[in-house]
Amino acid sequence: MKFTEEHEWLLPEGDLVVVGITEHAATALGDLVFVELPEIGMNVVKDDEICVIESVKAASDILAPIDGEIVEVNSALVDNPTLVNEDPMGAAWFFKMKPANMADLDEMLDEDEYKALVE
Predict the structure, then answer these.
(1) Which of 14, 24, 52, 112 could be joined to 36 by an S-S link, Cβ 3.0–4.6 Å?
(2) Are 95 and 17 in contact (CB under 8 A)?
(3) Taking CA 45 as the corner, what is the angle to CA 39 and CA 46, rounded to the nearest 5 degrees?
(4) Residue 109 belongs to a domain
(5) In a domain, 88, yes or no
(6) Can you give the CATH number for the domain in which 87 is found?
(7) Whether the Cβ atoms of residue 108 and residue 17 lie closer than 8 Å to each other
(8) How many domains does the chain have?
(9) What is the pTM of this model?
């Protein structure tokens, strides 16, 4: 698993990457009330705003962590945004993407580097 400084996690799964937000981000946001996911088939470039999440505290954008194509979204989050608060590192993944270059993950933070960032 890799992490971004924007509090996203990336989990390689075959030739795809599963993306969600970290427990730290979910806790900081508070109870989520709305999630807008990207379109399947959408080609994204690193740092594109591709998801919108709203909590009782704030609204945030989720940025594309790497270049690639969105191939699947977790529609359960649209019906039940609080899933992000309940299981941010598991069932509450946001989307799966086919990266333009899997080696881009090598530039991400590992778990120890991410923990150092948030402590």
Answers:
(1) 52
(2) no
(3) 115
(4) no
(5) yes
(6) 2.40.50.100
(7) no
(8) 1
(9) 0.93
Residue 81: inside a domain: yes
Q: Residue with structure tokens 């698993």?
A: 1
Nearest Cα neighbor of 26 from 102, 116, 107, 87 is 87
- Asked if the structure places residue 86 within a domain, the reply is yes
Model confidence pLDDT, tens digit, residues 8-57: 999 999 999 999 999 999 998 889 999 999 999 999 999 999 999 999 88
What are the structure tokens assigned to 104, written together? 């881009």
The tokens for 117 are: 């960032």
Local structure of residue 22 (DSSP, 8 states): -
Structural domain of 61: 2-101
Q: How far apart are the first and last CA of the chain?
A: 19
Q: Supply 115's token pair.
A: 């923990």
